[in-house]
Write a structure and sequence with these properties.
Length: about 90
């Protein structure tokens, strides 16, 4: 299976699971597609995540909110490393 396709399937699975758990929010967004239309998603290696996050800063964002799926501790460590590597305080 194509790696990118598998990552997109993982994102869809995460959204479906969180949509079921948060009925009020699910009613507001309407579907997994609705959630993805309102929240940007990334799945892949840290180097790609760094470039993806940096693109928002380059476009003028001063604050980013991250929502992790899966291993939250590991993802938080990766995000902290990305922040440090990009020179963000």
């Amino acid at each position: 299976m194509d790696f990118d396709l598998r990552l997109q399937e993982l994102i869809a699975h995460f959204h479906q699971a969180t949509t079921r758990k948060t009925n009020a929010f699910a009613a507001q967004v309407g579907s997994t597609a609705g959630m993805r239309a309102r929240q940007r998603c990334y799945a892949g290696p840290a180097k790609g995540a760094a470039a993806w996050l940096k693109s928002y800063a380059d476009a003028g964002a001063s604050h980013l909110m991250l929502r992790f799926a899966g291993d939250h501790e590991r993802h938080l460590e990766v995000a902290a490393r990305i922040k440090r590597d990009l020179g963000w305080s």
